[in-house]
């Protein structure tokens, strides 16, 4: 792995700034290979942020440069929400990188307030953050040095200003006119197998396998390459393998990190008397927990206890399940109480608190862990100690805020296991740029590979953002950047091949249209399996499902309850044909409304703060979302007017409710229904007189409380959330041009006339529906109305 440029004339005292860490390694190897300097001295090769930090340290008495973790902590202290903080920091980086001049009319009002509070804090303490470092350095002059830049194909506004101020040279790779071959495979498995065999046959040369969506298929790549290179037979660790895959992952994705975070989540839920069975199962089956080998059989037996069929366990039930596992049971009885978790402490106190939990479980002290896990554990311990850098903040915080910071640090820290010395490198698209190899194979280049999707800011209004020089902000800029990236990638080698597969798992794929497939080679399956004889089957029972993670969401349970065949059809991956509409489709209208409501009614909104919301605020939020769609301006204006009318009426109605506060917005939860795993997203949760009501926004009026009471259950999302949380009421908020109404169960439903309908216990019904789906029940026995909008009539052949 080298770069294609002559470095012989570069002085060993020079500085070379590169775009990524791969290029650092490649430049060092190239310089050492080309250099005739026997002292082995090489230039200082660094990435952009480290280059700026080195300039900062040359200054006398500069402001205190805060770490990225400290920056996150400051924003979290202001926003009080981990998810919103991450989104706000993404937009803050855009503002800094591209010197965006913002005001309350160009960004969301809440974000503008957060932004100003943060800037005031920095000014008050005389602090500086990494996002503003480049702008700060523009006011200073630095000594002239031999300075070179390599590997950048896009410069931010800040970077351009630094380059204009400092004398430098830009290193360009020597142009290559590559030979390019293209290949199509029947399936992703065939494509990966062919690539692995090709790599093995060419392992005497420098090879790169550049993978689109590396993260998505990384596990499949490792399995395939391990099989071809016989790694499994030799029980090789990653640093001993004959290939190197990527530079690393966020530390948060390592198994040992997930185990530790799961342990903390369990300890919190145990104190709250609200334990997900999966968390307890993780504790019982983890070899990282105290004296696992001593109680292994007892813990395995406990993990199959009949109570695991429940959605939520109580503390009493957990102690009963673990009564024969004396070591675990004793640990549980010594865990911190709810009062311990609900207190506020400084950073040092919380460090000690979580250390005590780790010591109580004797986490990872007994087990024989791999070299890779040992390295990861050492890295986690280093990260935990880094929280000491937050001491200058001196403020009190709760346990959730401290954990959010720890998780953020794990996500920011890239963990790299010891890399093997090999000629075969498996890389992602961006980290491959600027390198040079003997041979390169680009795999998985299907229709969604290039160009990238438009990336909208979270709080910066899109109408403003798209006028700036931000990459991938419009479809045009996405295409332009894709052309630049593709041109750069085709300079990696003189021998290049592109490929894609027609099928990935059960999804059909098409070729990437930005690549010339004119002289394409279609590779048939090499070892075609013999045709099996036809077997007569009963077609109302399908094979049991293997993958219990349901991507389609809880609508599967609704369909299973109303028509088993319709639920089963999701396993066939049938794509519904969507006719092109001149205006906005119902789906688009619903998505826009949800996005706007998330902006104008964020978490912590109260009836009092809502009174400050103006008609212009609502209109700006609507326009920001609508401008994302490629529609005629007349159509956008009509939809803006319609939405403004609905939302203004809704806000007026919200102001007539009794006092309330929004606790959560767009809250994502993972739930387990009798073995099936779903991700659900709650539109809104309110607190009213210390009680909880949850809402689901609907853009249609034909909803009634009976949808939540009748069998089969047609709207399972709110009930599922309700039985996983302590919720007293659930309701739909129907938002239409004709009327705004609240429909639901429980005594907290606003403007409920007559005696409120009580909530029911949905657990048994949902559990049975889940079991039926897993067992493959697929009878064509639809309930009333389910066939009305169904597109499967040619398959089920039922007359309605």
From TrEMBL:
PD-(D/E)XK endonuclease-like domain: residues covered: 558-797
GO molecular function list: exonuclease activity
Key word Nuclease present: yes
InterPro entries, A to Z: DNA_repair_protein_predicted, P-loop_NTPase, PDDEXK-like_dom_sf, PDDEXK_AddAB-type
One protein family per Pfam: PDDEXK_1
Keywords, ordered alphabetically: Exonuclease, Hydrolase, Nuclease
Protein name: RecB family exonuclease
């Amino acid at each position: 792995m080298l770069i294609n440029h002559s470095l012989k004339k570069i002085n060993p005292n020079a500085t070379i700034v590169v775009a990524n860490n791969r290029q650092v390694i490649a430049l060092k190897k190239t310089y050492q290979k080309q250099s005739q300097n026997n002292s082995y001295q090489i230039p200082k090769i660094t990435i952009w942020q480290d280059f700026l930090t080195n300039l900062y340290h040359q200054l006398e008495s500069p402001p205190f440069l805060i770490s990225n973790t400290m920056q996150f902590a400051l924003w979290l202290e202001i926003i009080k929400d981990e998810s919103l903080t991450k989104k706000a920091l993404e937009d803050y980086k855009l503002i800094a990188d591209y010197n965006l001049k913002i005001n309350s009319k160009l960004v969301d009002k809440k974000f503008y307030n957060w932004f100003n509070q943060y800037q005031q804090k920095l000014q008050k303490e005389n602090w500086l953050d990494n996002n503003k470092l480049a702008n700060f350095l523009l006011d200073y002059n630095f000594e002239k040095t031999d300075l070179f830049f390599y590997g950048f194909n896009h410069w931010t506004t800040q970077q351009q200003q630094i380059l204009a101020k400092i004398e430098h040279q830009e290193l360009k790779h020597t142009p290559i006119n590559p030979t390019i071959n293209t290949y199509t495979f029947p399936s992703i498995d065939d494509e990966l197998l062919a690539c692995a065999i090709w790599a093995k046959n060419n392992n005497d040369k420098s090879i790169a396998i550049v993978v689109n969506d590396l993260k998505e298929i990384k596990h499949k790549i490792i399995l395939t390459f391990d099989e071809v290179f016989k790694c499994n037979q030799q029980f090789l660790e990653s640093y001993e393998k004959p290939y190197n895959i990527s530079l690393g992952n966020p530390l948060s994705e390592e198994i040992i990190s997930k185990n530790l975070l799961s342990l903390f989540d369990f300890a919190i839920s145990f104190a709250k008397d609200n334990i997900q069975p999966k968390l307890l199962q993780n504790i019982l089956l983890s070899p990282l927990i105290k004296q696992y080998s001593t109680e292994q059989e007892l813990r395995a037996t406990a993990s199959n206890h009949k109570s695991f069929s429940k959605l939520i366990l109580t503390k009493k039930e957990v102690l009963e399940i673990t009564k024969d596992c004396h070591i675990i049971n004793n640990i549980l009885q010594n865990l911190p109480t709810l009062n311990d978790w609900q207190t506020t402490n400084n950073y040092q106190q919380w460090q000690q608190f979580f250390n005590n939990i780790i010591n109580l479980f004797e986490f990872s002290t007994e087990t024989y862990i791999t070299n890779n896990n040992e390295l990861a554990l050492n890295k986690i311990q280093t990260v935990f100690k880094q929280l000491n850098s937050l001491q200058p903040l001196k403020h009190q915080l709760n346990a959730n805020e401290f954990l959010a910071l720890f998780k953020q640090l794990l996500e920011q820290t890239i963990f790299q296991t010891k890399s093997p010395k090999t000629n075969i490198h498996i890389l992602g698209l961006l980290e491959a740029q600027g390198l040079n190899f003997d041979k390169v194979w680009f795999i998985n280049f299907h229709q969604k590979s290039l160009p990238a999707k438009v990336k909208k800011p979270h709080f910066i209004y899109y109408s403003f953002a798209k006028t700036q020089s931000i990459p991938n902000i419009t479809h045009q800029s996405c295409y332009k950047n894709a052309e630049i990236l593709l041109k750069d990638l085709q300079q990696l080698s003189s021998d290049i091949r592109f490929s894609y597969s027609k099928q990935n798992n059960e999804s059909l794929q098409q070729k990437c249209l930005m690549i010339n497939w004119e002289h394409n080679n279609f590779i048939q399956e090499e070892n075609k399996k013999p045709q099996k004889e036809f077997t007569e089957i009963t077609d109302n029972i399908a094979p049991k499902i293997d993958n219990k993670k349901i991507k389609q969401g809880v609508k599967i349970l609704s369909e299973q309850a109303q028509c088993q065949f319709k639920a089963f059809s999701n396993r066939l991956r049938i794509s519904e044909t969507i006719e092109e509409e001149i205006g906005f489709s119902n789906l688009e209208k619903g998505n826009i409304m949800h996005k706007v409501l998330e902006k104008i009614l964020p978490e912590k909104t109260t009836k009092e703060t809502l009174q400050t919301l103006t008609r212009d605020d609502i209109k700006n939020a609507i326009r920001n979302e609508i401008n994302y769609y490629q529609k005629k301006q007349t159509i956008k204006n009509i939809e803006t007017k319609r939405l403004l009318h609905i939302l203004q009426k809704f806000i007026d109605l919200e102001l007539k409710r009794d006092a309330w506060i929004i606790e959560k917005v767009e809250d994502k939860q993972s739930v387990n229904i009798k073995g099936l795993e779903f991700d659900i997203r709650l539109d809104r949760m309110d607190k009213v007189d210390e009680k909880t009501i949850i809402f689901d926004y609907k853009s249609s009026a034909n909803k009634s409380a009976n949808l939540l009471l009748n069998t089969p259950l047609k709207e399972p999302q709110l009930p599922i959330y309700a039985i996983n949380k302590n919720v007293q009421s659930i309701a739909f908020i129907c938002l239409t041009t004709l009327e705004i109404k609240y429909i639901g169960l429980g005594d907290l439903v606003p403007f409920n006339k007559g005696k409120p309908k009580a909530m029911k216990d949905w657990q048994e019904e949902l559990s049975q529906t889940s079991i039926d789906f897993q067992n493959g029940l697929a009878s064509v026995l639809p309930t009333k109305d389910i066939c009305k909008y169904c597109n499967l009539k040619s398959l089920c052949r039922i007359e309605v």
